Amino acid sequence: MRKISIFDTTLRDGEQSAGVNLNFIEKMEIARQLERLGVDIIEAGFPASSEGDFQSVQAIANTIKGCSVTGLSRSVQSDIDSAWQALKRGAEPRLHVFIATSPIHMKYKLRQTPEQVIESAVQAVRYAKKFFPIVQWSAEDACRSDLAFLSTIIEAVIDAGASVINIPDTVGYITPKEYGDIFQHLFNNVPNIAEASLSAHCHDDLGMAVANSLAAVENGVSQIEGTINGIGERAGNAALEEVAVALHIRKDYYNAETSLALKEIKRTSDLVSRLTGMVVPANKAVVGNNAFAHESGIHQDGVLKEKTTYEIISPELVGVATNALVLGKHSGRHAFKKRIDELGFQVSDEEVASLFKQFKDLADKKKDVTEEDLVALILGEKLANYSAVYSLQSIQVQYGTNHIPTATITLKDVHGELQQDAATGAGSVEAIYNTLERMIDADVKLLDYRLQSVSGGRDALAQVYVKMTFDGKETSGRGIAQDVLEASAKAYINAINRVLYMKKAALMKKELAL
Ligand code: KIV
Ligand code: ZN
Questions:
Q1: From ligand 2's centre to the CA of 202, what distance in Å?
Q2: Residue-level pLDDT at 19
Q3: Residue 51 lies in a domain
């Protein structure tokens, strides 16, 4: 069996999805889960792109030791310097440096001749090699590049020290056969190709990202790049869980495997979906809610007689059947902490104390407390502690078919000061948001509002996701509560807090620099 390395770019290319904006705590939780999933490389961000990205990449590189952590860089020294500062304490520092190679990108975007592009690429790789033991080089828009030029530049960057060559289908244009042919061409025409390993990076604009990635495996690549749930720019990237499960289920055909712990797939998918606000479609392969549901009578009959009649992937394989009852109403603190540890979260004593109280309150109101509920509580607690400029103290909403909905809200600020106000709206949620807007005294535009239940049943926790602009900045937030109106208020406050927190951090940085 050939080993295929999995390069996860959920935190970089995935985070470039429209409307996704992960904060430091969320990125760290995703990175920890990716480590548990067993990915080989985590692309944690683009350190030179912003202070926030730099800090997240650095913290992830300093914390995650079970796999290599990398960061993206343009072919300029300042980007490489910044990436080195962020990554140097990682377990296996690796740079991912790229430059565009297609005629269209070189002419209109870079405004460089092909010779200048080769020169920039070689200089960047040589410079990066002074610091990084592993340099991965990517030819942006490789699939619309001239193959002779692609071969020449690849030979040059391998000579300069690149040991991984990535061939991105940046615009999701290629077909599986054509993509496979590119790799064959490179194997046959780049004299020093044996000194590097080849990698595939596919986008899903034509719905072929996973098929293209698998074609790349068939044609000799040893690394696949992608994201969890296939999130990413435009139509997204190749969904890593689909690639890994396809290789596993069809190992007879591909004769290749990854080292992913497949039973962590569902949990990873849920976490990424919850933190990014990008809902997984019910019919999505491998992780969708309907992926293992058999609806028609003939299918149900077949599965009852013999599962394999209609089921090629068992739900247990990807961890779907593990959402069991976590703990009961009478569970003690010790068992509670043990369950949190088993889920892989790191929580402080203070967080355990607060979570235990929330768990007891929930267990009083809700019949079954599931793993999903517990994860929702933990993430809620972590976020609340991270950027709580404002927190919700109390909320009261009056609604009646013949009355104007009115919300009365009390907020607490970082200094512990309480503030109360009330406002009306066309509906209960609007009344809440009008009240909050007045209290925070800012221009807020709601762009999206989504409501989901965390697990099944009438007593399920509610999760609200909002996207909005606040003071001209786009932000998003999530809120969890047993009541949808309370969850709605929390999501709004969470979104506001993110912007206020970033502003505060930028101000502090400025003061320190003075
Ligand atoms: O799609 C792409 O070309 C990329 C590169 C930066 C690797 O994400
Ligand atoms: Zn990409």
A1: 7
A2: 81
A3: yes
Identify the three-state secondary structure at position 58: helix
130: amino acid identity, one letter: K
Task: Count Cα neighbours of 27 within 13 Å in the Cβ-side half-sphere.
Answer: 30
Q: Which domain holds residue 310?
A: 292-320
User: Is residue 365 a contact partner of residue 482, using CB atoms and an 8 Å limit?
Assistant: yes
Q: Which of 98, 104, 237 to mutate to test the pocket of ligand 1 (most atoms within 8 A of CB)?
A: 98
What phi and psi values does residue 327 have, to the nearest 5 degrees?
A: -150, 155
Are residues 367 and 490 both part of a single domain? Answer: no
Q: Which residues contact 462 (CB under 8 A, 6 or more apart)?
A: 451, 452, 453, 454, 480, 481, 482, 483, 484, 487
**Helices marked H in 203-264:** 209-218, 240-249, 251-254
Give residue 171 CA to ligand 2 midpoint distance, Å.
8
Ligand 1 neighbour 13 (Cβ under 6 A): yes
Q: What is the pLDDT of residue 364?
A: 87
Alpha helices in 130-198 (DSSP H): 147-160, 176-189
- pLDDT (0 to 100) of residue 512: 47
Give pLDDT < 50 ranges for the chain. 323, 512-514
| pLDDT at res. 384 | 74
Q: What pLDDT is stored for residue 382 in this prediction?
A: 84
Is 21 in contact with 50 (CB distance < 8 Å)? no
* Residue nearest atom 8 in ligand 1 by C-alpha distance: 13
The string of pLDDT tens digits covering residues 260-293 is 999 999 999 999 999 998 999 999 999 998 898 8
Same domain (yes/no): 148, 261 = yes
Number of domains forming the structure of the chain: 4
Nearest-CA residue for atom 2 of ligand 1 = 170
Whether 356 and 432 map to the same domain: the answer is no
Q: Is the CB of 169 under 6 A from ligand 1?
A: no
Q: Is residue 286 part of a domain?
A: no
| 378 and 419 part of one domain | no
Between CA 407 and CA 429 the distance in angstroms is: 9
What is the number of the ligand closest to the CA of 99? Answer: 1
Domain with 422 in it: what CATH number?
3.30.160.270
Does residue 360 sit in the same domain as residue 393? no
Say what angle helices 371-387 and 24-37 make with each other, to 10 degrees. 140
Asked whether residue 210 falls in the same domain as residue 342, the answer is no
Q: What is the pLDDT of residue 510?
A: 53
Residues 398, 345, single domain; the answer is no
